[in-house]
Structure formats: C-alpha cells, structure tokens
Amino acid sequence: MRMALSELVTSLRNVGVLKSKRLADALSNVDRKQFVPKEFEALAYKDEALPIGQGQTISQPYTVVFMLELLKPMLGEYIMDIGAGSGWQSALLAEIVGPKGHVYAIEIIPKLSALAQESIRNYPELMKRITWFTQDAASGLPKEAKKAGGFDGVIAAAEVEKVPLVWREQLKPGGRLVYPKTESIFLEIKKRDRTFSVQEYPGFAFVPFV
Questions:
Q1: Of 28, 59, 108, 150, which is most buried, counting CB atoms within 10 Å of its CB?
Q2: What percent of the chain lies above the pLDDT cut of 90?
Q3: What is the pTM of this model?
Q4: How is residue 59 annotated by DSSP?
C-alpha cells in the first residue's frame, strides 16, 4: 500500500504539478485510500476522480494538488474549505497548517459530511484541527472569520457560477481564494486596498456547486 501511495506522490512530482515539500509530505501522511468508498479502494492511488456517492466525487489528485499549490497553505494558517466532500482535502490542509492552524470544512450534504468525519477519525491529531459545518457555504463563516481576524485562505472544490462576495470579504489582506469556474481554476489574492489580483488557469472539469 505504501509503495502505491509513494508512486502516486512521485508521479505528481514528475509531471511537475507537485512542488511543495509540505504538500508532498501531507500526501504521504494522509492516505487517500481512507477517503474513498470500499468498492473503489483498489483505485485510490490512480490519478483520477472517483465517485463518493450523492452525485459527488473525490477529486483527481492532480487537480487537488494544482489547487493547493495555488492556495499555498502554511503553518499556523486558518483555511475555509468549501465543499469538503470526502474530507481528503480538509485532512491534507489540516496536516499542512499544523497544530497552531485550523481548517473550517463546509459540506452541505449531510451523508457526505458524516462519512468524511468518520474517515478523519483515522487521524486523531488532524481531527483536532478541523471544525465541520454541515450547511450551505454561500454566507461563508462570518463568526469564525471574525475570530480568526480573517481567513488566510479560502478554497472551493465545486464549480461556482458566481463567487459569493462574502468569501472575499472574509479573507484577510494577503489571503488567497482558489475556486473553479467555467472549466477554469481561478486564484484571487486580496490586496491591502481590498482589491484583488486574479489569475485564471483553464482546462479543468468539476462537479457543480450545490
């Protein structure tokens, strides 16, 4: 199993998408196999999206890594993870931000939220770094954002038609927002004057935001 997992990490590094050592370590320490349905465990280390039920998927590793490399999460940061799905990305983020950081995971589908939390029980230390919200993400998490002094990063795993304004408002200056829209991935960085720099990376497909 570890050999197959290490092969996935090596292949992501070889294609050039995986660059950060902290992200590489997180991929090695947080086993994707723990977050896929049992009938798909044999495919857990393939670089492809897999069904997790309720019409949703656990994203292709390449795509997850691409988005996390844009987000650039760091030790001690506070991250809002929207559309947490299987919980794999939330667990990766929790591993990266460390014990002084925190991940706020939002999943609107109750069954997926419950399954994700069950999967993360395999990682007791990471459980302490994640707070789960089974709700719509359109209003973000205003109380948590205020308490944190603004999020350092906001990432959405499902394609949005329009980015809720509050996602941008709840970022601190210098914070990063990463999301898919119209078959592209976008990176927005909040400037000190509260305007945003925007970069687009085309050529991706996602399940729709619900």
A1: 59
A2: 89
A3: 0.94
A4: P
